[in-house]
Write a structure and sequence with these properties.
18 strands, Methionyl-trna Synthetase, domain 2, about 350 residues, four-stranded antiparallel β-sheet, five-stranded parallel β-sheet, alpha/beta, 2 domains
């Protein structure tokens, strides 16, 4: 592994559904800011990108709660959080947003490339939870219940934030719609599933050995033990195809005929925001964005919280490799949750110390 000529640093995109709290800053932003400033002091070529995550159930739920549109929600909190970062001296090179046209174009390109390759997606009709009172399928944060793995009673339909387990709504014990507060019914719907199982072998080698395509890629001893442990737990249980589309009226439309009313799953679309943010930075600064994403001379580091480990260490790397030509992260420093009075800071649950 040669010394890199340039460094690309990313920090998890905060949802534009509320103000930043101390847990966010301690997890993905202050550590990245220190690391980036250190590299700059050494005279390194470094770009640090971030931005607002503006799609998915977290946004629409907040909009319903406040009685305004999702667009009004994201505009309000994008500007509030961007201003908070600026006041704190967090020194991003670019702070983008996933509602930007360039991001929509980039995310749809990823979907179409993988779709057209063949073998990366399965198209399936299955029964999913549905709230008849609100005429809506219940994906992600629209449904809550007890985690079957750790017993946490406030797990979401896509993951348990307490133990980090990947879930589907059908895994939840005693599921309840967050819209009506009632037990949902089952109804058939069609979705596209990313074949994570196809990528299991190389992902295991990449995580455990630090090798990629038979060559050294990174030193796994430099990764945090809990990151490696959570990844191996997933891999040892066997990866399954994961739905990457949703029945929602807010998000990036699935760019296929017959997919009306379907949008990209927020965790397919959001990490691609690092790429679109780099593209926008390069466009405004007369730089070549591909040098920071596609050159073997670039070191990529993703700063996140521990609830994002699976998406950054398994799902997003698999998407990048399936697309082809992109550099995978050489480290994913994921920090543990910051607790307040025994509970983790949570924007969606209004628990924490806000920073605006």
């Amino acid at each position: 592994m040669n010394q890199p000529k340039r460094h690309l640093i990313t920090s998890a995109l905060p949802y534009a559904n509320g103000a930043l709290h101390l847990g966010h800053l301690a997890g993905a932003y202050l550590p990245a800011d220190v690391y980036t400033r250190y590299l700059r002091l050494l005279g390194k070529d470094v770009v640090w990108v971030c931005g607002s995550d503006e799609h998915g159930a977290a946004i629409t739920i907040r909009a319903k709660k406040e009685g305004i549109s999702p667009k009004e929600i994201i505009d309000q909190y994008h500007h509030l959080n961007k201003d908070t970062f600026a006041k704190l001296g967090i020194s991003f090179d670019y702070y983008h947003r996933t509602s930007a046209p360039l991001h929509t174009e980039t995310a749809q390109d990823f979907f179409l490339k993988l779709y057209e390759k063949g073998g990366e997606f399965d198209e399936k009709v299955s029964k999913q939870y549905y709230d008849a009172e609100y005429d809506q399928f219940l994906a992600d944060r629209y449904i809550t219940g007890t985690c079957p793995k750790c017993g946490h009673e406030e797990a979401y339909g896509d993951q348990c934030e307490n133990c980090g387990s990947d879930l589907s709504p059908l895994d939840l014990v005693n599921p309840i719609s967050t819209l009506s507060g009632k037990k949902p019914e089952l109804k058939e719907t069609k979705h596209w599933y990313f074949r994570l199982d196809k990528h299991e072998t190389w992902l295991k080698e990449w995580i455990k050995e630090g090798t990629l395509d038979g060559a050294p890629h990174h030193d796994p001893k430099k990764w945090k033990k809990h990151v490696i442990g959570q990844c191996l737990s997933w891999l040892d249980n066997g990866l399954q195809p994961r739905s990457i589309t949703r029945d929602l009226d807010w998000g990036i439309p699935v760019p296929l005929e017959g997919a009306e009313g379907k949008v990209l799953y927020v965790w397919f679309d959001a990490p691609i925001g690092y790429i679109s943010s780099t593209k926008q930075w390069a466009k405004e600064n007369d730089k070549d964005w591909e040098l920071y994403w596609k050159s073997e001379d670039t070191k990529v580091v993703n700063f996140i919280g521990k609830d994002n480990i699976v998406f950054h260490c398994i799902v997003f790397p698999a998407i990048l490799k399936a697309y082809g030509g992109y550099q995978l992260p050489q480290n994913v420093p994921a920090n543990q949750f910051l607790n307040f009075e025994g509970r983790k800071f949570s924007k969606s649950k209004n628990w924490g110390i806000e920073q605006h």
